[in-house]
Amino acid sequence: MELRHLRYFVTVAEELNFTRAAARLHIGQPPLSMQIRDLEAEIGTPLFDRSRRRVALTEAGRRFFEHAREILEQSREAVEEARRAGRGEAGELKVGFASSLPYTSTLADTLYTYRQRYPQVGLQLHEMFTTEQFAAILHGVLDVGFVRHGGLEVPAGIQTREIGRDPLRLVVHAGHPRADRGEVSLAEFRDDGFIAFPPDVGSGLPFVLDRLCRSAGFAPRIVQTAREATTQIGLVAAGLGTALLPAPLECVRLPRVRYLAIRDEGAHFSLAIATREGAPNPLLAGFLDVLKEIAG
After folding, report:
1. Which residue in 22, 115, 126, 195 could disulfide with 241, CB within 3.0 to 4.6 Å?
2. Cβ neighbours of residue 28 under 8 Å, at least 6 residues apart?
């Protein structure tokens, strides 16, 4: 039994007239009658009562009609769903992002625009450190990631493209001698203890901190580690040290915390988009098009 047999049957059942049904189907009446008889033979029971004056559904025909119509509708929906997926208009896209990204406009604007443009696509969002995103992309857990890899090595099979650079800020306690300065040099903080991400969490920021401090003539003294940027800000408020964080985190306001601009060259943290090499994906293509509009 093929879908065309169901279409023939449903059309005859709706018209209750073989001549009109054949005209709708753009086939001759004799071939249509033959197809219906073949269908009845396959099912093993008559579906129509036929006479010179009228065509009517049998009880078996009425029951078959209900299911056949549903099957045809489901097949149409399946075809359209597949076509939408092929155009990148339906399905599920898995997106990773570093913890500082919700404080930027890039992530929010991209997700908002994409959802408006592709309402049938489900978004699965995962907050992960950069190295975790790289592994997830390689294993198909993520389709795309917003990463800050800094000095981290990009694994083979991953391609990245820089989409922005956020200035870095020194986060200091309000009682720090330089807390009221508008702009500072890192060399002025050679005697400070720093609060940083642990080196094994997969953030590129510890490498950036070390690089900038060494360029300023000293090695940073790490007095405390914390896995979350907001935790680091809280520890600064407690007077435990100084932190280096991306400027978008300035929106986290605590009474005893100040954010200082840095004049040193290279005092920024790159934001990049990461995808797997050679992995064509219509959903991802649409997402990257939106991102290009937002971030260039």
Report:
1. 195
2. 22
Quote the CA–CA distance of 102 and 296 in Å, as a whole number: 19
- Over residues 115-152, the pLDDT tens digits come to 999 998 999 999 999 999 999 999 999 999 999 877 78
226 three-class SS: coil
Pull the structure tokens for residue 76. Answer: 């149409």
| Backbone dihedral angles phi then psi of residue 244, each to the nearest 5 degrees | -120, 115
CA 230, CA 251: separation in Å to the nearest integer? Answer: 11
Alpha carbon distance 243, 173 (integer Å): 10
CB 183 within 8 A of CB 202: no
SS3 assignment, position 44: coil
In tens, the pLDDT along 52-67 reads: 778 999 999 999 999 9
DSSP state of 157: T
Q: What is the DSSP letter of 230?
A: H
Count, in order, helices (H) and strands (E) of the chain.
9, 12
- State pTM to two decimals: 0.72
